[in-house]
Amino acid sequence: MSSDIATILRPKSIAVIGASEDQTKFGGRLYRLLLKHNFAGTVYPINPNRPQLFGLKTYPNLAATPTAADMVVMAVPRHLVQGFVTEAAAIGVRAAIVITAKFSDEGPEGAALEAEITRIARAGNMRLIGPNCLGLISPANAVVLCSSPALDTDHLIVGQIGFASQSGAMMATVFDRARARGVGFSHCVSVGNQADLELCDFVEYFIDDPRTSVICTYVEGLKDPARFTALARRARAAGKPWLMVKAGRTSAGARAAFSHTASLAGTFAALEAVCTETGIVLLEDFDAMLLLAAGMARFPHRPVTSATILTTSGGGGAITADRLAAGQVPLTTFAPATTAKLADLYSAGQASNPIDFGGRKNGEGVDIAGITTTIIGEDPAHDAVAAVLTTSPDMKASTANIADAITKPTLFVMTPGPAADTARAELVARGLPFTDSLEDAVRAIAGWCRYTAWAAPIQAERPADLPHAELPTAAGPVAPADLAALLTAYHLPIAPQAICADAHDAAAAAARIGYPVALKALGADLVHKTEAGGVILNLATEAALKTAIADLQDRLGTSLQALLIQRMTVGEAELILGINRDPQFGPMVVLGAGGILVELLHDVVMAPAPLSPAAAAALLHRLRVAAILRGIRGRPPLDIAAVVTTIVNLSWLAHDHRERLAELDINPLIVSPIGCTIVDARALLLEQPK
């Protein structure tokens, strides 16, 4: 695979089917841009109607070329693609880019044609990029096989960022925005429909490529989630940051009629959990990804755990501090020696973070920006510098002075409009990363902090006393008694309970369990019992219990099929804990603030199962409500150890039954200072594999 990708990114010869001088056509623009950027190999323009194009001899078809090209680019109508693929494979072409769209991206007929051209290519040992792509750009190899106007530039900036995108238009857009900021790439690839070569193939190449130090991807869907996860670990081991923007964040799969867990999970949440575990940095937009990639390439292998703000405006510093706090980026606390040096330069109260150059003691002629940057650079903190520059007479000078003194990772935020153009040009000339958006800078620094803070998860080991219990054979919702038995088998702390047919049985069960009790209605139509009014709590006597049962019978009628009597449990906090089987990544543990406000608060975290105790504890402490468990306002801490054990055991239940357990919802898990208790649960099983 590595040699295949190397040939694709650095072919010795290229045939362009659809080559012309007509710049209104894909083939014409691509052909001209390939020549414009001085491809060093041989170019075979394929055009039966012209003897030459832009001074090069043309060929009527692929078979007429002197030798089989390493790479063939096809920008032709869909009905012609299969014939050209067949011809290319037959003569020994090693790779082809199919620009043409309307294959699997447009219905079953196109998908069938895509499958056929892929079969033909593979039979001939020829690799395909696309179809429905925009080609590739490899500045490291001076290869341009893309028709975008973004390539209509005098030279390519060669950088150390590799970019693989499922969208050709976004690849070209990001390339163009990067060029305007002086940021270069090693390679950019648009993979389109991924009929053969897919995004992970190029990520794998980037990991091994010495000319690529930072990996960027735009992802719409994954062909091989297991490979994706393995490559994420390889990238971390190689010291190459992997940054990603993912489309479809809000299309979460709300199968939510059955359980809260499903509505809180969703495909993006599962991907986010996998990225958190493996160290991929997810970002919300391309500009933040580009800025972070440029920073990491310009300041390689530099840890960032906090931020220092240098600014030409007190207001700009205050706003930046607010935004960083919202992004969970701490401000750097300077060492005493740093504070002392800054105190010599700045008025009282001005020598701390943020640092406003306007608070200096001396006159305007002093290079305060450069001197301050030098002092900050000597501070031992692992921080990034956010240089937030506003409109000022000496903006270009301040920019240059900061740039001259930089020793730490520095991202510039150019807040003015055209007034800052000369300062922007200074940064482009120096190859320093900048943005016009404070939000992009905050997202980039927050991403850098997440990358730095990542630690490889401890391998989960099955608890020695944990059995492997079997599931019921029938698909669909699990009967309450069967679910209680399953949870008990996995040492999960379900409250003592009994399922009863009538008031007489319920009274006997309550006497055995001990008052006070909770009464819950059971029935096929009563999935969410609280919403249906099917839960009555704190029943302290038999008389109260029988009155409550009569009330349920009157209100619920035939929907009431059985009664659940459960020991009344109280605690200081309620959590939701569950399992959701993601179709790509398998079983995920879902944990969040529970009870009736679960979806309103949406304080939820996820992780792939199984989990070690350390991973379970880390997951728990990511919740905002974890502060309650730790003890607040004089309240005693709750039994976090019991919750961690419950999470771990449930994660092994998820792992053991990953093929059939679609959902399991525990809500609430009631937590007290001396334990935790499951008081409501439901589960859904898939059919047994055949």
Blueprint of the fold:
Layout: H1 2-9, E1 13-17, H2 26-36, E2 42-46, E3 52-53, E4 56-57, E5 71-74, H3 78-91, E6 95-98, H4 107-123, E7 127-129, E8 136-138, E9 143-145, E10 158-165, H5 168-180, E11 185-190, H6 199-208, E12 214-219, H7 225-237, E13 242-246, H8 260-264, H9 266-278, E14 281-283, H10 286-298, E15 306-311, H11 314-326, H12 336-343, E16 355-356, H13 368-378, E17 383-389, H14 395-405, E18 410-414, H15 421-430, E19 434-435, H16 438-453, E20 476-477, H17 480-489, E21 497-500, H18 503-513, E22 517-522, E23 535-539, H19 542-556, E24 562-567, E25 573-582, E26 586-593, H20 598-601, E27 604-608, H21 613-621, H22 626-630, H23 640-656, E28 661-672, E29 675-678, E30 681-685
Helix pairs in contact: 3-4, 6-7, 10-16, 13-14, 14-15, 18-19, 21-23
Briefly summarize what is shown:
The protein contains 23 helices and 30 strands. The protein has 690 residues and is of the alpha/beta class. 49% of the residues are buried.
Describe this structure in words.
- By secondary structure, the chain is an alpha/beta fold.
- The protein folds into four domains: 2-249 and 284-288, Rossmann fold, CATH 3.40.50; 302-453, 3-Layer(aba) Sandwich (Rossmann fold), CATH 3.40.50; 496-567, 2-Layer Sandwich (Dna Ligase, domain 1); 573-685, D-amino Acid Aminotransferase, Chain A, domain 1.
- It is 37% helix and 21% strand.
- The chain has 23 helices and 30 strands.
- Helix 6 (199-208) packs parallel to helix 7 (225-237) and helix 21 packs across helix 23 (640-656).
- The longest helix is centred in the first third of the chain and has 17 residues, at 107-123.
- It is flat, with a radius of gyration of 31 Å.
- The chain starts with a helix and ends in a 5-residue tail after the last strand.
- Residues 251-266 have low confidence and may be disordered.
